[in-house]
What we know:
Blueprint: E1 17-18, H1 23-39, E2 57-58, H2 67-79, E3 86-89, H3 90-95, E4 99-100, E5 107-113, E6 120-128, E7 132-133, H4 145-157, E8 163-166, E9 172-174, E10 179-183, H5 191-205, H6 215-223, H7 228-248, H8 261-270, H9 274-290, H10 294-308
Parallel strand pairs: 2-3, 8-10
Antiparallel strand pairs: 1-6, 3-6, 4-7, 5-6, 9-10
Helix pairs in contact: 1-2, 1-8, 2-9, 4-5, 4-10, 5-7, 6-7, 7-8, 7-9
Amino acid sequence: MPEAQTDTPRRGAAVATGIAAPSRYHEKFVATVIKQIEDGTAPWLREAKAGEPTIPRNAITGRRYTGGNALYLASRGQERGFTDNRWVSKQQLRENGGKLARGAAGERILYRDDSGKTPVWRTTTVYNVEQTRGLKLERRPPRAEWHAHRAADAVIASSAVPIDESPGDLGYYVRNEDRIVIPERGRFSSADTYYNTAFRHMAHASGHEKRMNRETFREAHSEGLDGEAHGREQLRVEIATMTTAQRVGVGYQPADSEAYKDLWVKALKADPREIHRAAAEADRISRGLLRPARDQLRDLAREARTSRSRTAPERAPAAPPRPAPERAAPSMTPGR
Length: 336
């Protein structure tokens, strides 16, 4: 079940335009997101049921868009009232016998063109499938519950940071000990809530100097909970939690982010590029959480495909995936 790469636009395509400073793109992006944050409807502030197709995909290749492009298309699609998460380029539309609806306006996404001596950021335009006619597309069936839960368990078991369960009600990350504490599984209202809690703390702990060495992580622990850096770090953590939950197939349960909304809006107004940076970094965080469990996830994906071809697709196979390799917790300097 490894994540597909971003659908990279064809180099030199007619719709691509060289842009040294894509400020219009970022201003449009951040305006949409700020409005959604203020309304409480930003993608990472909304609950998503297990199996609900939310991460934008290319309609033809089936690949998920990633990073800033994924969040941009999710936000713009939501703002424009689209209920389908699939997008397609004009060229793909022509090659697959489809047509654009009259007056259809697309969305421009960014990609880096490395064909020349110096990399150049370019844009290409994609359209939601609800703006098209004549395309024959099949919707992929959602993952069975057993598959999603076992995938989530594999990710948690392979965590680079020890995760201890506590009889209490609080979850937190202890930086000076580099460990995560979460309530016992039975204290959660649902399995999805348990998985999201674990993913959320794993996402934050990924910023430690021995792992991603994230600037917002360091500054958040230095400035404290009320600092701007803490808000920027939490933005990355929430988007990464949402992305990870959707990639493994469990439902997404947003955290109580009321205290962060003002910090997010302030940061995004100060620098419109911050939302793209946050989304791109959140994507790297999510990939980093999944990477240690890559072999187990592949085994599970193979078992799921086999199960779908049998008469009882919802029944979990008897053989478990290969166990996650044991990892020693990295050392960490004293701190909060």
